[in-house]
Design goal:
With 207 residues, the chain is an alpha+beta fold. The chain has 4 helices and 7 strands; from the N terminus they run αααββββββαβ. The chain has 2 domains: 70 residues; 95 residues, OB fold (Dihydrolipoamide Acetyltransferase, E2P) (Beta Barrel). Helix content is 32%, strand content 24%. The termini are far apart. The model has no long low-confidence stretch (mean pLDDT 83).
Amino acid sequence: MPAAEPVAEQPAPSQPLLLALLAWGIGILADRYGDVPLLFWWCLAALLILISIALRRIGKDHQFAPLLLSALVCVGGGWHQLHWGFAARHELGRFAREASQPVCVEAVAVDRMMWSPAPTSDPLRAMPVGPMGEVLVSITRIRNGRQWQEAAGKCRLRVAGGLVDITAGDRLQVYALLGRVPSALNPGQYDWARAERRAGRYCDLYC
């Protein structure tokens, strides 16, 4: 009876993209909960990449992958900080203050105006509240005295009172109050400012 031939073990499939995504996510979390300067992330990533390339050239391949994954951690942290802590030079949010101030802007509607009816009467409410409309707009220019200057960014435009029919693509000239999105004031309160910042929005327009 012929002897059974040993079955060759199949190597486990490698998943480099999964490891890269995991390293990227670790970097994002590290920057989210740590106080790390952006320059540190980029410099450390560049250093780790150079070291990994040098080790690969001298044949130390077993140290190449860990260093490259560490570099991806740094790139993920730098990417998160760049998108979280920095805004474009013409971002409308740079003009916003804690106290709302009047502005005139030109914008393009991103979607259709959505209207909410007036809430029911409440004796605990100091001021009556009427119907409110909301639409997401993309800013193109802001008025600076008698001149227009370039502006950018997206924000929510809230309109009180009369119904205005706005659809996506409409070009608007808006006279409104510009202010920063308010942060949470009490423990456990939903933080609108943080939620809007994740979406790249730093301010609101109200008229």
